[in-house]
Amino acid sequence: EAIAGRPEWFGLGSRVIITTRDKSLLTRHGVELTYEVKGLDDEDAFEFVRWKALKTDELFSGYVHVLERVVAYASGLPLGLEVMGSHLFNKTIEQCKDALDRYERIPDKKIQTVLQLSFDTLEVEEKSVFLDIACCFKGYKLTRVEQILHVHYGDIMKDHINVLVEKSLIKINESGQVTLHDLVEDMGKEIVRQESPEDPGKRSRLWASKDIIEVLKENK
């Protein structure tokens, strides 16, 4: 508000670049020209993580599959590529594989902290809707998600979903499906896992079949 309240504050020819995760911020300040930054494609992502992990032009054949796993897991997100690539530096292939297995079970704390910034700004019910989607409804048609969540949240649920889209936590693709980045999905699931790391039965949501079976067996 104090630095860039309105476009007319700036002289003719001025160029102001604003970066934000919250699209509503741009709307409130009359920003008309916007550009959504895309993730790195697989080729660029591979080169980026190769330099972070190996720091050399030489590519040892045994590391190709490891780096491809990092690229697939990060899904073009530079933060994920940088954190995981740096962590793999100076490690053997087996150590790299073990580290990636761990990442797939429990997200890296640095990545989790950065991605959770947008989540932390949400209202209580908005957080709840996001966790529902991250844990259970990724890939569902928007109409189906609205139908299911309406039972619990009522009509306000549509406003909550709009907020999640504005804050870039979820997207609605051209096919009308609710999608979100894999690392954002993992962030949401980790928030729920931390509700009770050792006892799935005390968590607010379950998505892994082994946890669901375990809880059902214990509650016969």
Automatic annotation (TrEMBL):
- Does Repeat count among this protein's keywords? yes
In this protein, which residues make up the domain named Disease resistance protein Roq1-like winged-helix? 123-196
A Pfam family per the record: WHD_ROQ1
MF terms from GO for this chain are: ADP binding
Could you confirm whether the keyword Repeat appears in this record? yes
Q: Which InterPro entries match?
A: Apaf_helical, Disease_R_plants, P-loop_NTPase, WH_DNA-bd_sf, WHD_ROQ1-like
Gene3D superfamilies attached to this UniProt entry: Helical domain of apoptotic protease-activating factors
Gene Ontology biological process terms, A to Z: defense response
* Alphabetical UniProt keywords: Repeat
> Which SUPFAM superfamilies would you find in this protein's record?
P-loop containing nucleoside triphosphate hydrolases, Winged helix' DNA-binding domain
PANTHER family, A to Z: ADP-RIBOSYL CYCLASE_CYCLIC ADP-RIBOSE HYDROLASE, LEUCINE-RICH REPEAT-CONTAINING PROTEIN
Protein name, please? Resistance protein
Phylogenetic classification of the source organism: Eukaryota, Viridiplantae, Streptophyta, Embryophyta, Tracheophyta
